[in-house]
Design brief:
Spore Coat Polysaccharide Biosynthesis Protein SpsA, Chain A, 2 domains, 10 strands
């Protein structure tokens, strides 16, 4: 049953799978929009680990792409194994996510964006971690950052040495986004209880809000293996959102949303550190993502907001560097 505090116009209700319906263990949901050039790699990474249709359904949901044809990629690469659904119009990525969640029947939900990938062993290992931690509502692994050509760019941190339930995960995820979407698996019953992604976050950080929401109500497990790949490339929606300034607004909005349901004790404990982490992330968007070739006018809102959030010497130094790249 859906938690009453999330029964509103911002959270889609995800109905339970009808009793008696045959269900696979896995639902792999692949939302895509104008990124068909990477979709083949995404599908191949999943199909290489395919345990069969009785144990996994694979659904590509296209948000009405206008620049390419993901349907032809699915047909060629999936060979009938992958279901393809095309939205009749583009209503935003959260509606695309919602469509996939409502279509899913698996007990474990893995949302894998159409330009990301999983590494060998992802599904077997994550199923084991969740099986060993039945109280966990979700589990995530470490992620490799790759560029448009698949070259390694970086790696997410080691959250803890041993696999298992994360200690104080709510405090950690409130302070900073540390979970990339291709790395996390969520039990479907969690989405049934907490609803879909928040529609107010359609221009960014919708995943972070969801992971905070889950951590408020469920333990979250961690796998210390590097089993997912997150692609950062020039055409990525995130980069466009930063350039337009919507990412900055999304970051501000997420705090006002989650502060309404995060326990007050957690807010008191994390408020100062969160401001510093927000300042760091704001600068990362305004300096690192936009790059030195962007105009000062584009960078300035990020630099100004970072100073409002924190006057830590490291923040001040990077702001000055951003003013004069």
């Amino acid at each position: 049953m859906m938690n009453s505090r999330f029964k509103d116009e911002f959270h889609a209700e995800i109905p339970p799978v009808p009793a008696g319906m045959p269900r696979p263990n896995w639902s792999v949901l692949i939302p895509t929009y104008n990124c068909a050039e990477y979709l083949k790699e995404t599908l191949q990474s999943v199909l290489a680990q395919d345990p069969g249709p009785d144990n996994m359904e694979i659904i590509v949901v296209d948000g009405h792409s206008t620049k390419d044809d993901p349907g032809s990629v699915v047909k060629q690469c999936g060979q009938g194994r992958v279901r393809f659904v095309r939205e009749p119009e583009n209503l935003g990525r959260i509606i695309t996510y919602e469509t996939g969640l409502k279509l899913s029947k698996g007990r474990l939900i893995h949302q894998l964006h159409g330009d990301d990938k999983v590494r060998p062993g992802f599904y077997a290992r994550m199923a084991t971690v969740l099986g060993e931690n039945p109280q966990a509502g979700a589990a995530f692994c470490r992620t490799l950052y790759i560029d448009g050509n698949g070259k390694w760019k970086g790696l997410t941190g080691m959250e803890q040495y041993e696999d298992g339930i994360m200690e104080d995960f709510l405090e950690k995820i409130v302070m900073s986004q540390r979970v990339q979407t291709p790395s996390i698996v969520v039990r479907r019953e969690v989405y049934e209880a907490l609803g879909g992604f928040d529609l107010r976050q359609d221009r960014g950080q919708e995943d972070w809000e969801m992971w905070i929401r889950i951590a408020c109500f469920y333990p979250v497990a961690f796998c210390n293996e590097v089993l997912a790949e997150y692609r950062a490339h020039p055409n990525q929606a995130t980069r466009k959102d930063v350039a337009e300034g919507s990412s900055l607004r999304a970051y501000e909005r997420i705090c006002s949303i989650v502060d309404r349901y995060i326990p007050e004790a957690v807010l008191r404990k994390t408020r100062k550190k969160r401001s510093l982490e927000m300042a760091k992330y704001t600068l990362m968007m305004g300096v690192d993502i936009l790059g030195s070739q962007s105009s000062l006018r584009a960078r300035l809102p990020y630099l100004y907001r970072a100073l409002q959030l924190s006057r830590h010497p490291r923040i001040v130094f990077k702001v000055l560097k951003g003013l004069c790249p």
